[in-house]
Design goal:
This protein is of the alpha/beta class and 253 residues long. The chain is built from six helices and nine strands; from the N terminus they run H-E-E-H-H-E-H-E-H-E-E-H-E-E-E. The protein binds S-adenosylmethionine. S-adenosylmethionine binds next to helix 3 and helix 4.
């Protein structure tokens, strides 16, 4: 499933004069400074998500420097990867799915774990979640989540320490298990939270025998990283026996 829709809302400018724009600009400027500390000359731009066009994010502009980076820049990128400057394919797909299935989050408290840009939490808020928390180990990701929540005019509480996150009805994870060392986090999350939805384009289903696939969506990372086509397909997983998530796996072709 792939859709490209436009949205004619005016995008914010970086030198606006109304109070909300000033707040937004401050967050965005802080983010730009953080990005510049890693890659000089890289720019952030408010970007519409093709599969979730009611949502826009401060993301790395599509003209970002490609090709071999100078060794010092490459070392900084590896040491402090700005994952938050991209909307990863799984987050993109999950935002689309949540907006198509608002009943999943409506009136509920949701945690976006490994929030990055905050895309999943923002989509949950736009779909009618009563409260949204975001958790990420990267302080810059939480800054990005705050800036993007402002951009979309939704409230998100940000947490760096999972242990401090208040209770939530549902946890969303998108593209967090790229680091296989994170897979055991699923057990930790299941001990604390009643329901989990996992969106991932890199895991093989065999790695999660206690989880079932309930949807598969094609979505690209934005800006496009020219990834292998197999990473364009995001699988949606839920623990076996959990009702949340539709359609039921049995209905999938
Ligand atoms: C590839 S990004 C995905 C971001 C976003 N969910 C999306 O789909 O665009 C993975 C994010 O998970 C965060 N992360 C990785 N390990 C984590 C952990 N143990 N606890 C919390 N966040 C973590 C990273 O800092 C990063 O922001």
């Amino acid at each position: 499933m792939r859709r490209f829709l436009g949205d004619l809302r005016p995008l914010p400018v970086l030198n606006g004069s109304c109070p909300r724009e000033k707040r937004l600009n401050r967050s965005a400027r802080q983010l730009s400074d953080r990005l510049a500390a890693t890659i000089a000359g890289a720019r952030l731009t408010p970007t519409l998500l093709p599969l979730a066009p009611s949502l826009r994010l401060w993301l790395l502009s599509a003209d970002f420097p490609r090709g071999p980076l100078p060794p010092d820049v490459a070392a900084r990128v590896v040491a402090e990867p700005a994952y938050w400057a991209f909307c990863w394919g799984s987050g993109h797909a999950l935002a689309h799915w949540l907006l198509e299935h608002p009943e999943t989050v409506r009136g509920r408290t949701v945690l976006d774990f490994g929030s990055g840009s905050g895309v999943a939490g923002i989509a949950a808020a736009l779909a009618g979640a009563e409260a949204v928390h975001a958790c990420d180990i990267d302080a810059d990701a939480l800054l990005a989540t705050r800036a993007n929540a402002e951009l979309n005019e939704v409230d998100i509480q940000c947490w760096r320490d999972l242990a401090k996150v208040p209770t939530a009805d549902l946890v969303l994870l998108a593209d967090v298990l790229y680091d296989r060392a994170n897979v055991p986090l699923l057990d930790t999350l299941q001990e604390r939270f009643p329901e989990i939805l996992l969106a991932d384009s890199r895991l093989q289903p065999e790695m999660l025998p206690d989880w079932e696939t309930f949807a598969v969506i094609e979505a690209e990372t934005i800006p496009d990283l020219d990834e292998s086509p197999i990473h364009r397909w995001t699988r949606f997983y839920r623990p076996r026996g959990q009702a949340t998530g539709s359609p039921p796996a049995a209905l999938l072709a």
